[in-house]
Amino acid sequence: MQKLIIIKSRAIPLPVENIDTDQIIPARFLKSIDKKGFGNNLFRDWRYHVHTNEPNPDFVLNNPKYSGEILVAGNNFGCGSSREHAAWSLTDYGFKVVVSSFFADIFKGNALNNGLLPVKVSEGFLKEILEGVTNSPESEIVVDVEQQSISFNGKSENFELDSYKKICLMNGYDDIDFLISKKQAIQNFELKTQKEYEQKLF
Questions:
Q1: Which is nearest to 78 in space by CA: 28, 19, 31?
Q2: What pLDDT, in 10s, does the model give residues 110-147?
Q3: Using CA atoms, how far apart are residues 94 and 47, in angstroms rounded to an integer?
């Protein structure tokens, strides 16, 4: 996974509440077990007309004014089923951060496990960001993972982040990578424990 330390980017506003995982990535596109390619069908039923498969010009991802590595969405993002593919589709599309005032717990865990940072902000700050980005698409958001802060238009808030997941995000680790990074420490502990055990025996 890529390292997330400081993300400074324009953002894409999606002021819709209760976006569930089936809206993020419809169930009919879950056949693959490879994480790659899911971005093509991110918000599929909103991005494309169902009957013609033509791009929907009214949907924000099809609007050339908006771009960036940060998605700003309405309250209760990622509710619904537990499908990990929702996080896969967002990262495969190119998002590194999702900002909302509330995330479903399972989605939040899946996101962090796949290098996608869910940033929870107050409802008031979310409203300011959504309005600011919508009216000024060129404006940027700065997310500092180490400081656990998000800044926009001269205002900042801090967000919660599990200390273990913070280490993983900043180093580009998944759970296995983290264990591998501790290989020497684990070996040293095993040797120490073995010596202490042998001393007790003899």
A1: 19
A2: 999 999 999 999 999 999 999 999 999 999 999 999 99
A3: 16
Tokens 């424990």 locate to 193
User: Tokens 């976006």 correspond to what residue?
Assistant: 19
pLDDT of residue 3: 97
Instruction: Give the C-alpha separation, 80 to 28, whole Å.
Output: 15
Residue 188 has what pLDDT?
Answer: 81
Written as one string, the DSSP assignment of the chain is ----SEEEEEEEEE--SS-BHHHHS-GGG----SSTTGGGGTTHHHHB-TTT--B-TTSGGG-TT---SEEEE-SSBTBS---THHHHHHHHHT--EEEES-B-HHHHHHHHHTT-EEEE--HHHHHHHHHHHHH-TT-EEEEETTTTEEEETTEEEE----HHHHHHHHHT--HHHHHHHTHHHHHHHHHHHHHHHHHHH-
pTM of the model: 0.90
